[in-house]
Each structure stands twice: as C-alpha cells, then as structure tokens.
Amino acid sequence: NVNRVTEKLFVKYRRLEDYLAVAPEELEQDIYQTGFYRQKAKSLRGAARVLLEEFDGVVPRTLPELLCLPGVARKTANVVAAELGDPQGVVVDTHVRRLSQRLGLTKHEDPVRIERDLVKLVPRADWGRFPHLLIWHGRRVCIARRPRCEDCVLNDLCPSARVWTAPPDSGRIGAPSMEEGT
User: Fold this and answer.
1) Half-sphere exposure of 130 toward its Cβ, with a 13 Å CA cutoff?
2) Over the Cα atoms of the chain, what is R_g?
3) How far apart are the two ends of the chain, measured CA to CA in Å?
4) Alpha-carbon torsion (47, 57, 20, 35), positive or negative
5) pLDDT by residue (tens digit) across 52-111?
6) Which residues are catalytic?
7) Architecture field, domain 89-161
8) Residues in CB range of 43: below 8 A, 6 or more apart
C-alpha cells in the first residue's frame, strides 16, 4: 500500500519545498491510504523542513543524523542508510524479527537487541542484503501462520522446522530413535 501511495506522491511532490507549500490537509489526503496519515503528514513536513534547514536539502547518510529527522526511527534510518549504499546496521522489521527468532539467531523481542545479535552474526558487507533475504523468505516460504517447512532450503538447520530430516549416518538431536518405537 505504501509503495502505491509513494509512487503517486513522488510524481506530485518533486522537491522538498513542495511538501511545505501544500496545505497539510491536502498532504494528509494524498497519504490517507497508508494509515496514521495525520502523523505521517506532520512528519513528512517536519523532515522536509529539517532537511532544507540543517542539511541543505541533502539526505544525510549517518544514523545519528537520520535519527534527527521527524518521524524517523531506527528501522527507517537503517533502511535509508542501506539504500544509500552505506548500511550502518541491520534493518529489523516484522519478517526479520520473526525469521531471526525461528532460525535461532536471537531470542530477543526488542528490535534493537535483535539488531545487536544480527550485526554480530552477519558480515558487515551483507548488512544491507541480509534483511531483504529474510523478508523475501518470510513472504514466500517461512510464512507467519503457515510456514512451508517442507519446501524450505533451511529446514535441516532451522530449530523451528516442522519436518524431520535426519543426516544419513546420525540422528537429529531430539528426534525419536527407531528403538523408542516411533
């Protein structure tokens, strides 16, 4: 939904000044479909103002600078930094959170703690790409309500896999042995 709205938005609003020149109600109407449109319109206008006044209209590249923009929290700052070619952390959205937990990469619920765990495990060169891999895997295979473990290339490594695949010569930890009368 956001992608559809922004496609039209970027045609109508070509410059930062355009977000400030329009009536707040018109901008709210333009982004209504995204939800929380009043707060988002306020943040868009605030970010445009800060970008113009403090950054000469150029989007900053560092997390501390990005976090100064109204409406920008850690996830958005990480997305922007990664898209600008300099990831400074790992983006943690709902898919990344869920898959990181399922794969046993973290036990945390808090996105900041999850990110701390992931940056220790994922090489810095892959910080920008890693979230995309998890997001696509989460949308196509490791679906929230109905994970398709039988189709997953990671099912032999995943502690949450709902299929049992034993290596040829050894049993999987926790799997019943043939002597136990499966």
Assistant:
1) 23
2) 22
3) 48
4) negative
5) 999 999 999 999 999 999 999 999 999 999 999 999 999 999 999 999 999 999 999 999
6) 75, 93
7) Orthogonal Bundle (1.10)
8) 70, 71, 72
DSSP, collapsed to helix, strand or coil, labels residue 29 as helix
Phi, psi of 137 (to 5 degrees): -65, -40
**In the chain, domain spans:** 1-58, 89-161
- Show the tokens assigned to 177: 């042995």
Residue 135's Cβ-side half-sphere holds a number of Cα atoms within 13 Å equal to 11
Contacts of 175 (CB under 8 A, 6+ apart): 164, 166
Q: CATH number of the domain at 1-58, please?
A: 1.10.340.30
Give the total residue count for the chain.
Answer: 182
* φ, ψ of residue 21 in degrees (nearest 5): -80, -25
- Among residues 20, 81, 10, which one has the least CA distance to residue 46? 20
pTM: 0.80
The structure tokens 């400030």 sit at 20
Please tell me the distance from the alpha carbon of residue 48 to that of residue 59, in angstroms, as a whole number: 10
Distance CA 6, CA 65 (A): 23
Show the CA angle centred on residue 34, arms to residues 46 and 147, nearest 5°. 125
Residue 164 pLDDT greater than 80, yes or no: no
Tell me which residue of 151, 111, 155, 110 sits closest to 131, measured CA to CA. Answer: 111
C-alpha dist (Å) from residue 181 to 161, 162, 166, 171, 178: 22, 20, 16, 14, 6
